[in-house]
């Protein structure tokens, strides 16, 4: 019992002694904080800053069935039954995969962008290749990496401005550019509400908002194209039938008119029968033509019916402040870490002795 009490007394740390010892080394703390502050600022200030913006879309879901009500109730408990209420093969959970494809990202490189200060007005391809701020501290490492890649894989072909990229066959530099764009445009879908959130990143605030708008427009265009693909095929089919029926109707009308003009005041039954046959053929061709016109108009209405509507819950706004890197937080974190490192340096003998003493007692 006395040994346990003695051991507990040895384990008690007198904070007054600790604070007194730390205060006695205050000059060391000020020196370390000063050096840490200067080095942290020297590192973080040249880093390129990035702006972030997001926008939210609520797409209209097509092909609902009787399971829609059940899916709505289940979603309130955190279960997603969205696939039960739609016959679409391309459901919202696949939208992020779509926006990550090379075809989608290469198409974004053709959009026109303009910086907030108006100094750059070009396409996104040129902006990403010629108007990006670089991290000066990464130059030596990037140069060494580039030289190693040249030795292993050979010197790559330079990017050509104005060249239409082939998303199925990208060169090494083109693939690196597409990877940068992929990291700059992300998409997230809420499985409960199917709300689409598009998040974009750029070194310029106006470019960031423009990129979000363009990505949203292209995503809506793809979804609309998919949802209306069957209806547009039907529309083109009935348009072809209507045009063919119109040609036959006009030809039959011309034959009937020509026959009537050439056989006026004829009372022979054979001529009257021929005229009646031509008239019946004309009436049949006209009925077919009118039916195809009706089907074509119905197909056009079906395209409009299948076209989904998108509700913009939150539009893309030009961000006011850059989001990263957080300079003040970084400097504060470095100062905080330097404080603990200095404390460890001051008490390292006591800490090591305590650690070795604890190990020996366990042994």
Termini gap: 20 Å
Which H/E pattern describes the elements? Answer: HHHEHHHEEHHHEEHHHEHH
What is the helical fraction, as a range of percent? 55-70%
Q: What is the CA-based Rg, rounded?
A: 37 Å
Characterize the biggest β-sheet. Answer: 4 strands, antiparallel
Broad structural category: alpha+beta
Q: What's the count of strands?
A: 6
Q: Determine the number of helices (DSSP H or I, runs of at least 4 residues).
A: 14
Strand content: 5-15%
**What is the number of domains?**
2
Low-confidence stretches: 63-79, 81-85
* Dominant shape: elongated
Strand order of the largest sheet: 4-5-1-6
Average pLDDT, to the nearest integer? 79
Q: Looking at the chains present, what oligomeric state does this protein adopt?
A: single chain
3D architecture notes:
By secondary structure, this protein is an alpha+beta fold. The protein is built from 14 helices and six strands. The protein has helices at 2-11, 15-24, 26-44, 68-75, 95-99, 102-108, 124-130, 139-153, 172-184, 205-227, 229-262, 269-306, 327-346, 348-362; strands at 51-59, 112-114, 121-123, 185-189, 196-202, 310-314. The strands form two sheets. It has a four-stranded antiparallel β-sheet with strand order 4-5-1-6. A two-stranded antiparallel sheet has the order 2-3. The longest helix has 38 residues, at 269-306. The two termini are 20 Å apart.
């Amino acid at each position: 019992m006395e040994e346990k009490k003695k051991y507990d007394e040895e384990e008690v740390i007198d904070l007054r002694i600790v604070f007194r010892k730390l205060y006695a080394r205050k000059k060391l703390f000020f020196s370390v904080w000063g050096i840490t502050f200067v080095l942290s600022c020297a590192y973080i200030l040249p880093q390129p800053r990035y702006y972030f913006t997001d926008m939210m879309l609520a797409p209209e879901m097509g092909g609902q069935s009787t399971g829609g009500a059940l899916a709505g109730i289940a979603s309130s408990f955190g279960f997603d039954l969205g696939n039960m209420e739609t016959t679409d093969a391309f459901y919202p959970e696949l939208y992020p995969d779509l926006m990550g494809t090379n075809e989608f990202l290469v198409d974004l490189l053709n959009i026109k962008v303009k910086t907030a200060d108006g100094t750059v007005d070009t396409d996104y391809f040129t902006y990403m290749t010629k108007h990006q701020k670089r991290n000066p501290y990464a130059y030596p490492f990037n140069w060494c990496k580039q030289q190693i890649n040249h030795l292993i894989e050979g010197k790559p072909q330079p990017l050509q401005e104005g060249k239409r990229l082939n998303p199925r066959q990208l060169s090494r530099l083109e693939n690196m550019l597409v990877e940068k764009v992929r990291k700059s445009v992300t998409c997230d879908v809420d499985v409960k509400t199917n709300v689409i959130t598009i998040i974009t990143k750029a070194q310029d605030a106006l470019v960031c908002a423009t990129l979000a708008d363009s990505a949203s427009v292209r995503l809506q265009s793809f979804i609309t194209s998919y949802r209306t693909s069957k209806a547009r095929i039907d529309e083109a089919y009935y348009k072809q039938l209507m045009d063919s029926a119109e040609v036959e109707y006009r030809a039959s009308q011309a034959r009937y008119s020509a026959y009537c003009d050439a056989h006026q005041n004829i009372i022979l039954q054979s001529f009257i029968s021929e005229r009646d046959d031509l008239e019946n053929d004309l009436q049949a061709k006209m009925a077919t033509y009118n039916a195809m016109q009706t089907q074509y108009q119905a197909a056009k209405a079906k395209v409009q019916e299948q076209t989904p509507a998108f509700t913009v819950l939150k539009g893309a706004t030009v961000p006011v402040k850059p989001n990263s890197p957080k300079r003040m937080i970084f400097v504060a974190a470095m100062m905080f870490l330097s404080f603990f490192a200095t404390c460890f340096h001051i008490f390292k003998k006591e800490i090591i002795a305590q650690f070795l003493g604890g190990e020996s007692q366990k042994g």
